Amino acid sequence: MSARAYRSMPSDNTVERRDFLKRGAAAAAAVAAVASSGLGNRFLFAHESGQAAPAAKTPPPKPKTNIEDALKIPRTKTSLPGLCPGRIVEVHDPAAMPDGNPDPAVVRAMFEKGIAALTGKNSKDSFALLFTKDDVVGLKVNPVGPGLISTRLELVDAVAAWLEAGGIPRKNIVIWDRFDYMLTDAGFTAERFPGMSIEGLQTMDEAAQEGKTTDNSKWLKPDGTHVSVPNFDLDKYYWADVDGPKDLEYLNQHVFNGKHSYFGKLLTQRLTKIINLPVFKNSGNAISMATKNIGYGAVCNTNRLHAPLFLDVCVEVLAFPDVRDKMVLNITDGLRSQYDGGPGPNAKFAYVDNRIYLATDPFALDMLCYNLLTEKRKAMGVSVNENPRFTEYLRYAEKLGLGVVDQEKMIHVRA
Fold it and tell me: Which residues contact 73 (CB under 8 A, 6 or more apart)?
């Protein structure tokens, strides 16, 4: 698939492909009603932009979920918030992106400096704190906006080199994301990363999604199920009392359309550890970084969750053992960042920043990055809505014991 399919999207006016779906008869009528007024997709994604939907009423109660099931499962020594609760390391090197392209040696040095500052150990000893040679490690990248704001291949190289130096063979390193075609578009291929696995949890037929063909045979089996169904573990799921739309466009993109968001078998049956590699960018007045990269990436059938649960998904999915007990490191790629127009790519708002951020605690990491992004947006003259709802999910995570986001308890280290 071509990179063209993931277009720039000012968040208040256009809809990101990853989050696009047809809404069914009732919602379609609502969209039609506002389309003539010029509001368009702003109505659909008001929850991300921070703007009120037209004629908005008091939001309905939060739907019930199975979060209590996750909380009942005993934690392990690797459970979130991990080895270094509340601690975030920021590494800046102005030489990281000469001419806008990463310098592999500088990026690798930044990573090694950061991991040492985070753990207080050298590269070899820090590896031993988080991994064993027998681990199968998944590198969760963000391939959205290939070449602009996607996870830099050179940062993945640096992390993989560290894992190999610790004794993990390349065959036990898996670069993954939710969609297979996005990985290819962003350069995560077997040719670029020989010996490693490159895996998407699911496939999606873009031509069918865009209405360019009525032939659904590439993704829809004769029995009416998605070809990617076998990739998901029907015994491991995030349940929310919200149904997904029943149309084929939704099923194409989301595999299932009931009330269950199943975890990929990659996470539940193969990976023993996860390193999360998001990108520094916004999602309206919220952020789309560490917790969203995994919260909306580890499970299917997610778009039904955006309006009623949105950011809480970034907490509750992470509370389940196959993320909570395995995701031992988070590295936010701020080599090139984006302060507006997200979560999709928009070159107008992208800028070289020459930074990476490391933490075992993804919620502390997101709280720091939210504050830094808000400062950047203000400095660039962007109207900022600082309603507490954009960070309330992080405090929710703290209440569940998954992270430390109290500003007085967080430790921000500039290495």
Answer: 320, 321
Rg over alpha carbons for the chain, rounded to the nearest Å, is 20
Residue spans per domain, the chain: 62-414
Query: Phi and psi for 398 in degrees, rounded to 5?
Result: -65, -40
- For residues 161 and 166, what is the distance between their CA atoms, to the nearest angstrom? 9
Question: 179: part of which helix (H) or strand (E)?
Answer: strand 173-179
Helix 153-165 / helix 123-130 crossing angle, nearest 10 deg: 80
- Give the three-class secondary structure for 412: strand
Contacts 24+ apart (CB under 8 A), 99-107: 100/336, 100/352, 102/152, 102/153, 102/154, 102/155, 102/335, 103/154, 104/154, 104/157, 104/158, 107/152, 107/154, 107/155, 107/157, 107/158, 107/335, 107/356
Evaluate whether 269 touches 34 at the Cβ level (below 8 Å): no
- Cα-Cα-Cα-Cα torsion 401, 403, 408, 409, nearest 10 degrees, comes to 80
Three-state DSSP at 26 gives helix
- Taking the C-alpha atoms of residue 40 and residue 34, their distance in angstroms, rounded to an integer, is 6
Question: DSSP readout, 241-295?
Answer: S-PPP-SHHHHHHHS--SSEEEEEHIIIII-SEEEEE-B--EETTEE-SHHHHHH
Q: Is the distance from CB of 168 to CB of 131 less than 8 angstroms?
A: yes
Mean pLDDT, rounded, for 105-123: 97
pLDDT above 60 for 49: no
Name 15's Cβ contacts closer than 8 Å, sequence gap at least 6: 9, 41, 44, 45
315: tokens are 């907490």
Convert the pLDDT of each residue in 231-259 to its tens digit. 999 999 999 999 999 999 999 999 999 99
Q: Alpha carbon 91 to chain centroid distance?
A: 21
Contact 291, 363 (CB under 8 A): yes
How far apart CA 79 and CA 273 sit, in angstroms, is 11
